[in-house]
Amino acid sequence: MSYTAEISRNSPTCFLLLVDQSYSMTESVGGTPGVQKAAFVADALNKTLQNLVMASSKLTGTEMEIRDYFHIGVIGYGLNVGPAFVGSLSGKELVPLSEVGYNPARIEVRQRKVPDGAGGIITEDVRFPIWFDAVANGATPMCQAFSLAYSILEPWIADHPDAFPPIVLNVTDGQPTDGDPRQIAAHLRSLETSDGNVQIFNMHVSALNASPLCFPNSAQQLPADQYAHMMFDMSSSITTFAWEMAQQYYPGTERDARGFVFNAGIEDIIHFFDIGTRVKVRQV
Amino acid sequence: MRIRVQSQVYRLQKLGNRPDENEDDAAIIEPPDGVLDEHPARYAVADGATTGAFSSEWANALVHTVVEHWTPTESLNACIEPLRSTWSDRFASLNLPWFVEAKARAGSFATLLSLWIAPPEDGTTEGIWNAAAIGDTCLFHVRDNTLCAAFPITESVAFGSTPDLLASKPPLGLVLREAHTHGHWRVGDQFYLMSDALATWFLSTHEQDGSSWAEIAAWREIATTTDHFAHWIAELRTSHRLRNDDVTLLVIEIVDDNPSPTT
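ok -> structure tokens follow
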């Protein structure tokens, strides 16, 4: 139970992302008017998948290979609860990373600013692959989402009993509308490989311009908000590696911190995905 | 007196990878028959960074560029500038998948070490050597069972996980730390050039009991085939004395085919 299992092509781990697609995700991210929560989370999630593919792709000679260090799933919950990939991966619960890399639903051309090498800034076009679209419709059936996560990860763990345990990243902006998810989250965390239990990271995206609380280690740090306490209770203690990553963005993060961000602003959303998907990969 | 260089390269990929996934490379240009009379002997070793695109190709292009063009009065960075200016063109015309294009756009990265062994000074059995390095690929100069020079890293604790890297894109706003050194060689000297994993072993073993080059000599005395090298590396990895990484070792010896009779 050490979270030290090798992550390699022969021994992949799993990331399962649960994304709130309720109507309230149409609101702006707190402190950033005009940036819609659903759209920003979708961009951050697509960028995260892009980063995982880039970090796991190997290019030698004429061979271009995406190494299957990870199996990836995205579950949306709102009007419906289910797999949220769009395009040719639509309907799939978990896919190897190479299948993700080779099958974006579409590739958009976006612009970014880069230094021109002579002290100026130029705008260049970059290709931005899309696997997941912003959706905001319906209620917040978080309990159903965690139940589905359990039914996906239980057989995965049976097939990978010695793997680095799966990591579940849950992104939401509102209270669950189908009950208290603490029990089903505890049930999900109880799933284990020989290397440790399933880890759950939770992020609450705020519409308010409120101070974020990132990776707390004690319920005493939480605001007097029943909902914040619920999500704290659902979140796993982070591993040493994730703690080291968290410290890069949030100096002072305690070693026994939980994988939990409350009142996340746009930078916190990006950091959450980065910290939650950083694991030590043996590059073979 | 006929002073020659004789050299051999050994390479082995990271355990779990295929040989063609090795991102280290080495190149050699020696005078005819290795005879050091007019022209220098030139060597280079590079270690491509796994995170970049086309790292092995970049490492390969770097070592061949510097053995052909680098001279001790020049910086490595300046020497590879023509290569850098055309590097991205090689991939521009290819219809690459999005992730390959994105990685290629970010650039290719490698460490680089170059060694130049000049011919002997007139009528003597010794001469000058020069070396330049970016990153943690290392050179060790051994004479009479003594380590005369370790370059650019001199202590095993100095190795880290983020060495300086030579990028295929200009290092915007960064001052690239490029190290240069020189020394004298004599007949009988050995040079060991190696990528970082083996260099870490070399220095830490030297710091403990000084036997690193003796250990290399021990298996080279039996046979100098790549198989023996692979067997030795496997033993080091199994005993956790060597971290699992691509390994390149280039051994250079300076010999006199017709030594003067001693009286």
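Chain B has a mean pLDDT of 90.
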